[in-house]
Structures are given as C-alpha cells and as structure tokens.
Amino acid sequence: MARRLPSDARETLGDFFANILFNVMTGMTKAESVEEEHGKLQARLRELTEERMRRVADLAGRYYAEHANPSPKRLSSEQVARLKTRAIEFALDELENET
C-alpha cells in the first residue's frame, strides 16, 4: 500500500496534475476522433462547460496524485495512461454525484 501523501504535498501535486489533465481533456474535446477506448470519455467531456471541466480536472488531479504515490516517476507509460483515464472517469462520476 502506498504511503499517504501529506496534505500540502497532495494539494501541490493535485494542482500540478489538474493543470495537465485539464489540457488533456481540452484536447480530447477538440479532437475529431480519439482512441476507441476513450470515445465515451470524449463524449462525456464535450457535454461540460469549461467551469465544470476545471472541476473535473481538480478532482482528477487529486486522484492522480494520491494513486501515483509514492513516486509518479516510477510509473510506466502504460500505468500513467491507465491512471490518467481512471482519474478522469473517477472525477466525472464524482461530478455527477455532486449534482
């Protein structure tokens, strides 16, 4: 089990990853097509306003920071891709539960 991140590190890393994931999600919404496994994500993201997409990015960034712990640099490219997708899906589900 990964060590729990201190709250200040979680917030800093969460903000960092949120910015990256926001750019990824923006790219997904603007792309004409995405990989087949990301088609549903693209459709869900296209329904969001920019404000709600930023909320998704914030939630996804914190999820990513927690689950990439203790060292994000030790993740393989495949692990990064899976974690990125899980983080966005988690955040979209959380957003739906908030409303």
What does this structure look like?
This protein is mainly α. It has one domain. Helices cover 73% and strands 0% of the residues.
Described by strand count, sense and barrel closure, the largest sheet is: none
- Segments where pLDDT lies below 50 for 5+ residues? none
Specify the overall morphology: globular
Distance between the termini: 32 Å
Note the beta-strand portion.
under 5%
Instruction: Give me the number of helical elements.
Output: 4
Portion of residues within helices: over 70%
The total of beta strands comes to 0
Q: Could you say which structural class the secondary elements and strand pairing correspond to?
A: mainly alpha
Count of individual domains: 1
List the helices and strands and how they pair.
Layout: H1 7-30, H2 39-46, H3 50-67, H4 77-98
Helix pairs in contact: 1-2, 1-3, 3-4
Condensed summary:
The protein has helices at 7-30, 39-46, 50-67, 77-98. By secondary structure, it is mainly alpha-helical.
Task: State the main characteristics.
0% strand, mainly alpha, 99 residues, 4 helices, globular
